[in-house]
Amino acid sequence: MSRYFTTDHEWIDVAADGETATVGITDYAQGQLGDIVFVEVPASGTRIEKGGDAAVVESVKAASDVYAPVSGTVSEGNPALEGDPSLVNSAAETDGWFFTLVLNDKGELDGLMDETAYKAFVAGL
Amino acid sequence: MRYLPLTDTDRTAMLATIGASSVDDLFIDVPEFARLTGPIKGLPLHAPELAVDRHLSALAKKNRAAGDGPFFLGCGAYKHHVPASVDHLIQRGEFLTAYTPYQPEIAQGTLQVLFEFQTQVARLFGTDVANASMYDGSTACWEAITMARRITKRGKALLSCGLHPHYVSVAQTMARFTGDVLDTAAPALTAETDIARLIDAIDSETSCVVVQYPDILGRIEDLTELAAKAHANGALLIAVVTEPVALGALNPPGEMGADIVVGEGQSLGVGLQFGGPYVGLFGCKDKYVRQMPGRLCGETVDAEGKRGFVLTLSTREQHIRREKATSNICTNSGLCALAFSIHMTLLGERGLRELANLNHELACIAADRLAQIPGVRVVNETFFNEFTIALPREARPIVRTLADAGVLAGVSLGRLYPDVENLKNGLVIAVTETTTVEDIEALATALTGALA
What we know:
The complex is a heterodimer of chains A (125) and B (452).
Chain A: E1 2-5, E2 10-14, E3 20-25, H1 27-33, E4 36-40, E5 47-48, E6 53-59, E7 63-67, E8 72-77, H2 80-83, H3 87-90, E9 99-103, H4 115-123
Antiparallel strand pairs in A: 1-2, 2-3, 3-9, 4-6, 5-8, 6-7, 8-9
Chain B: H1 8-18, H2 49-61, H3 84-90, H4 108-125, E1 129-130, H5 137-152, E2 156-159, H6 165-178, E3 181-183, H7 195-201, E4 206-212, H8 224-232, E5 236-241, E6 260-264, E7 280-284, E8 296-301, E9 307-313, H9 318-321, H10 334-371, E10 377-378, E11 386-390, H11 395-404, E12 411-412, H12 413-416, E13 426-430, H13 437-451
């Protein structure tokens, strides 16, 4: 499994088969947002475009869009976030995932950062 | 506040600082045709203060104020008795401010009032939650329609023919920019409402059904079946209350299944004030709270465990969502909400019930008395403090005749619906606790005379 990052602070884990992936926001992003009180995840079957709105995350001070790192079709929104949105604060890059999707085009991953590049990107902010 | 004079020296210094040679230079970007060049037509350049005072007093005397005699105007704005203590309390320096004081560190009193206001509105409406007030009833109604669209992801709203035409008009104006489809009709001078039409019209495209309760003619319907039909089709029921005192006597819409209840709170604590500022009320079911416009005040504890209040939810608003804000006309009417809340607190539950009963009893007396006038028919079978009568001829000139005789008789439907022929004989009569039996007799006598 390989993990990629976007400049909008989303992470995407691509499964070993290269066909499916899991998306969430980074630990850095959740730290910036503060206490997260609500997450709106996409319904399964939703077709999303790379860079388009995919989910909404609300903290006590801001509501932010989560963009799709790549294009695809949503297979599942994380049901755990409905009852416990603070999972994003406590486990942003594990249990606090937002949705899974079936990739349209693996080539779209090429423009994304790996963990080292993302760390350097965040350090420069 | 200090008076700061503006001398020629001051003006010259300011112009020199910004590099302009004259005041007119500052308006250079305004096209010449749009600039005023001479004095305003009909307005003198100046007049002594005393003369202005006399002139304006003379103009004011041309008005016939609501308290000057028998008064039966309603249709969304009602003359109720507001206790003197309401005005006194809202004018305390802690409350009366041009600023909206929401910072929890310095505004605990304001926030606690909003918290209590929300509680009162939610209980009155029978909804799980209510927000900290809106601009007014009509804009709250539109916000409810857009909220229903966000929830259902559908764009067709069914508006009852009993919805106030001004509320319909606000929705139509806004819908021009959002693309929502509004299905509406004018009412008829009948005891029946259009609940059956609405039930038939609900389909898979319907986002919501909007009904007024009591409606524009004062009619009252059980909304339970309509709510069930709307829900069965995946649509929401929005109830609009323009006379909240009615809920001291009637079942709250939320208990009949309404998903969103909005209203105008002017009746409690807020005077007629020539039509504003008023206060919009907004409540909904708990499961829709995240889609609610405006802001919500919550109770919490501080670092020392002491009870405190904060604004907790305003996720549709500009400061949270920026350019993607989805509530656009939800200005919190802080001071009017405070007046509402103080009046409600002074009344208490029992007081509100008694006030409602008094309103209804007087309205019954008025309806019975007017029904005795030859040619006059009371349209309603049910009503609270407002009902509609059908006259043997057009109501507008009769209202004018009665006004000249010192009786403000009511709102003619011809004024509200100038294009609807079969409504022009309709007159909506509102009666409140401020109406006396003598007022009712004066109306009946004057109307009998005008129709003779």
